[in-house]
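Supplementary Methods, section 5.1.

A reviewer requested that the exact input to the structure prediction be made available. We therefore reproduce it here, unchanged from the version used in the analyses.
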Amino acid sequence: MSHAATTALDSHVLVLNKHYAAVRIITARRAMSLLFRGIAEILSIEDGDQWQTYDLESWCELSELRARYERDRHEWIRCVRLDIAVPRILRLMWYDRLPKRHVKFNRRNIFARDHNRCQYCGRKFPVGELSLDHVMPRSRGGKADWENIVCCCVKCNVKKGGRTPNEAHMKLITHPIRPKRSPVVTLRLTSEKYASWKQFLDTAYWNVELRD
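The structure derived from this sequence is encoded token-by-token as follows.
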């Protein structure tokens, strides 16, 4: 399989329950499995703001037309007989549950919440050059939770040491808070190819974890 095909299969697809409520994000590889098994259908924007549903067979037929006239607007899964456009949204035919109202507390979500930016000097760094800092040091009773952990570059972490920001004469750029929805999803929504997701994301209950 080509690198382009592998990349397309790893791209992300929003999954809705049967009532059109967002429940999770999966890979295109997993999405194709659901379509082959007939337990999901594709939602696609047609003519600006109109939604159309497709099963796998009708989507393959549409993909042939799109490959001919608007190939640059889609990612493609290369098969033996045809190329299939990667769907952006699936709707589960029978599943009606909603996701838990909880954003997983982990390193990835903390970095995403803080946009890979050191919360003391304000500079952005690659993930490998960032660490996590306890605003109130653990030696002083500081907890490992959303309100006390921030992204921090190595230089600022060393400078702060086991002190509070005030004691180290350092100022937090943003006060850390618990996100209302997955910050990873918030980052993905800045990409134009995921623009069709926006109307399905309800911050009152939306939580998502990336899964294969």
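Helices lie at 3-9, 28-36, 56-69, 107-113, 154-160, 183-188. These observations are discussed further in the main text.
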